Amino acid sequence: MESQAQNHELVLVIIPTFNERENIEIICEKILNQIINCNVLIIDDNSPDGTGQLADALAHKDTRISVLHREKKMGLGSAYILGFQYALDKNYLSVVTMDADLSHDPIAIAQMQQLSQKYDLIIGSRYIENGAMINWRWYRYLISQMSNYLVKIFLGIPFKDCTGGFKLYSTSLIKKILTEKIFSKGYAFQFEVLYRSIKLNATIIEIPIIFSNRTRGMSKLSFREFLLFGYTIFLLKFRTWNRN
Q: Are 162 and 152 in contact (CB under 8 A)?
C-alpha cells in the first residue's frame, strides 16, 4: 500500500461506475499501462451486473487500484466529491476524473500531468481545435452543443467544453472546491465545479481530446438529468454566489 508521502507524487484517477463490468478492466489496464505515477480509484454504486466485485478482484491483483462501494446509485457528482475527499485524505498531488466507458483515451493524462505544474484545472475538450467526437449520433451532439450553449449564455463560462468529464484538478483547488456548497449530484456537477473554479480564480486551460462513443454497456443519461441540469444553471445564476 502506498504511503501518503509517496502518494504526494502521484495522480489519482477517479472512475465512478454503475453497470460497467464490460469496460472496467479494459480502462484500468489502459490507464496503468500508459501512465506512470498513477493510481486508480473505482467508486461503484452497487452495480447489479457485478462491476463492484470485478473491481475488487482487480484491486486484489494490483495495489495501484482501490475501490469504494456505495449502497445504491447516488449520482456522478456525489461520487466525485467522495473521490476528491479520498484524494485529500491520501495526500495525492492531483486528481483526474474520467468515464469508465472507454470514451476517454488515458493517453491525454500524460499531457495533463505536464500542464498541472502551471494550471489548477486542465479540461479535456472535444470542441477546440484538434478535438473531436467519434461515432456520436446527431441527437447526442445536438444535446451536448445546446447544453454548452446554455451554460455559456447564463453563467458566462468562457470555455468551449463546459460539460465534459475528462479533467485534471490540483488538490489545492480541490481543497477550495470542497468548502463550497455543491448543488448538483449528477452530471451537472461538471459545469458547476468549473463555474466555481472560475469564481475561485483557478488557472484553467483546455486541451484537445478525441471522444469516442461507448461501444459496450448503456448510457446513464436520463430525462431527470436534463431537468437537474437546468435547475443547477438556475441556482448558480440566481442565487447569491458565496464561499462558505
A: yes
Cell of residue 99, nine digits: 468515464
CA distance linking residue 57 with residue 70, whole number of Å: 17
109 vs 144: CA distance, rounded Å? 23
Short-list 139, 140, 104, CA closest to 122: 104
Return the H-helix or E-strand segment holding 113: helix 108-115
Q: Is there a domain that residue 184 lies in?
A: yes
What is the C-alpha to C-alpha distance for residues 170 and 200, in angstroms, rounded to an integer?
13
Mind listing the pLDDT tens digit for each residue in 8-23?
A: 678 999 999 999 999 9
**Which grid cell sits at 50?**
457485478
pTM of the model as a whole:
0.88
With CA atoms as reference, report the closest residue to 190 among 222, 144, 224, 153. 144
Q: CATH number of the domain that 133 lies in?
A: 3.90.550.10
Q: 61 lies in which domain range?
A: 4-238
**Segment 217-228, tens digit of pLDDT:** 555 555 566 677
- Point out which residues pair with 16 in neighbouring strands: 43
Query: Which residues, other chains included, contact 169 with Cβ-Cβ below 8 Å and sequence gap of 6+?
Result: 84, 94, 95, 96, 97, 120, 121, 177
Cβ(62)–Cβ(32) under 8 Å? Answer: yes
Query: By C-alpha distance, which of 227, 123, 121, 225 is closest to 177?
Result: 121
